[in-house]
Specification:
CATH architecture: Roll
Distance between the termini: 51 Å
Oligomer: single chain
Mean pLDDT: 89
Shape: globular
CATH superfamily: Electron Transport, Fmn-binding Protein, Chain A
Order of helices and strands: HHEEEEEHEEHHE
CATH topology: Pnp Oxidase, Chain A
Strand content: 25-35%
Radius of gyration: 15 Å
Largest sheet: 8 strands, antiparallel
Length: 164
């Protein structure tokens, strides 16, 4: 197992409102800033896996948010994992995408409109082993939670024209 997969296998995600959560948010903001300034040369890989910037809108607040996430290319699609480190609940970005699946990602300086869809059981069966090969920490996260960690397929698409 690679270094960061081993480290994250031992760590649990910080609790909302804690000092650790505030530090996590600052680290995330720094990663987004570096990624954008360098078009992914810095912050564009984690433990060998590629990183994208996921845009989403808060389902309760309407606030626009951006999260750096590992992804796996699958043809023209990108697959992300709603693991939240194996916590018992889904990450906020996953719930936000379920409420508002039309969004964008940034990949190495390119903005790509996508539609987010939860992988079907058949897609999950095909994708999960590849994702664990990409980032072995996912297997540890799944082992520590009772929920089945959702996989989200980001399908590129052309959004409808505003003139229509």
């Amino acid at each position: 197992m690679r270094f960061w997969s081993r480290v994250t296998a031992l760590a649990f995600p910080p609790k909302r409102g804690s000092a650790g959560f505030a530090a996590w948010n600052r680290l995330t903001a720094l990663n987004v800033w570096l990624y954008r300034r360098t078009r992914g040369r810095l912050g564009g890989r984690f433990d060998g896996a590629p990183v994208l910037l996921l845009h989403h809108v808060g389902r309760k607040t309407g606030q626009r948010r951006v999260n750096p996430l590992l992804y796996m290319p699958d043809g023209e699609n990108m697959v992300i994992v709603a693991s939240w480190g194996g916590a018992s609940h889904h990450p906020a970005w996953f719930l936000n995408l379920k409420a508002n699946p039309e969004t964008e990602v940034e990949v190495r300086g390119r903005r790509i409109p996508v539609r987010a869809e939860v992988a079907s059981p058949e897609e999950r069966k095909r994708l999960w082993p590849r994702l664990v090969d990409l980032y072995p920490g996912y297997a540890n996260y799944q082992a520590r939670t009772e929920r089945e960690i959702p996989l989200v397929i980001l399908r590129p698409h052309q959004p409808p024209s505003r003139d229509q």
